[in-house]
Design brief:
Blueprint (H helix, E strand, L loop, with lengths): L8 E4 L3 H12 L4 E4 L7 H6 L2 E2 L3 H6 L3 E4 L4 H8 L3 H4 L3 E5 L4 H13 L3 E7 L12 E6 L1 H11 L5 E4 L6 H10 L2 H16 L9 H24 L9 H18 L7 H15 L7 H5 L7
Parallel strand pairs: 1-2, 1-4, 2-3, 4-5, 5-6, 7-8
Antiparallel strand pairs: 6-7
Length: 296
């Protein structure tokens, strides 16, 4: 849908991701209104054809679809507070980080002011916005998703509605996002390790990519084990990982690389072994991660 038939869109928040969102809508021919607390950030988008609203009230009123891209849900509510009267009847889509509880609170706040609410997450970097395989998922009012699905797909071809519960996107955002920092720190440790031998970090990129491909291939297997609760068919056991933990101390001594960030992970593996999971699949760590439900 382009040109005169294209849905008008407002984008609030013009950090690197917000700019990418507004640019994608503008390039796709959607009348795009932008607002940012620092107005100068709108200049490149204005040059592309976007409209800049001086007041956030005007930005919210300008389009039936209002997308916020601020850091947190608190930031979103704070920015929109002067414009609550303009929210009534508008479709509000939040694309920010935060907990499921934050999402529920923001949904109640938005709905209380008459908005139709959808929470979402962009599961890629700003430069990937608009690509056919870029994933975005949403949760909340399904009628909003269905009405604006074609417009939302401008941001990424892999666009999914998770369910009517307003907090599902935040739940999956945190569940999936939990993998990022451990994976990156593992790569950074590897980079420091090869550099200790006078080698370039770039020399391990190909091999690290293959390793991540292997990990990806294991995820459906581990998910099946976790969902069934059957960890007995162990291709990689807890004990195998426990034995490997001992090598990290030798590596740290030889390369002078700090591996202490691994200590809580090693402790988790030991606790799994102590709980009787030594010969079970490493996915049994999920059982150790679960805290007992408090008894009434």
């Amino acid at each position: 849908m382009t040109g005169k038939n294209a849905t008008p869109v407002t984008v609030i928040g013009l950090g690197s991701m917000g700019r990418a969102l507004a640019e994608a809508f503008t390039k796709a021919g959607h009348p795009t209104t932008v607002w940012n607390r620092t107005a100068a950030k709108a200049a490149p988008l204005i040059a592309m054809g976007a409209e800049h609203a001086e007041a956030i009230e005007d930005a919210v009123a300008a389009s039936p679809l209002v997308i916020t891209c601020l850091t947190t849900f608190d930031d979103t509510r704070l920015a929109l507070r002067p414009a609550v009267a303009s929210l009534r009847g508008q479709a509000l889509v939040t694309l920010n980080s935060g907990s499921p509880a934050d999402a529920r609170e923001t949904a109640a706040w938005a709905i209380g002011h008459g908005a139709r609410f959808l929470a979402g997450a962009v599961k890629n970097v700003p430069s990937a916005v608009g690509a056919p395989n870029t994933l975005l998922y949403y949760s909340g009012d399904k009628t909003v998703f269905e009405e604006f699905e074609t417009t939302l797909k401008v941001l990424g071809g892999d666009t999914v509605h998770l369910g009517d519960e307003s907090d599902l996107a935040a739940l999956y955002e945190m569940a999936v996002g939990a993998m990022l920092l451990p994976a990156l720190v593992g790569f950074f440790q590897g980079a420091a390790t090869v550099q200790a031998r006078g080698l370039e970090a770039a020399s391990m990129v190909r091999f690290a990519g293959k390793w991540l491909d292997m990990i990806k291939s294991l995820l459906p297997i581990y998910a099946k084990e976790i969902d069934s609760g059957d960890y007995t068919d162990a291709a990689s056991s807890v004990n195998l990982f426990l034995a490997g933990a001992a090598h990290d101390a030798d590596l740290a001594k030889e390369t002078n690389v700090d591996t202490t960030w691994l200590a809580p992970l090693h402790d988790l593996v030991r606790r799994a072994a102590d709980a009787g999971h030594g010969d079970h699949s490493i996915s049994a760590l999920t059982e150790v991660l679960r805290k007992p439900t408090p008894q009434p």
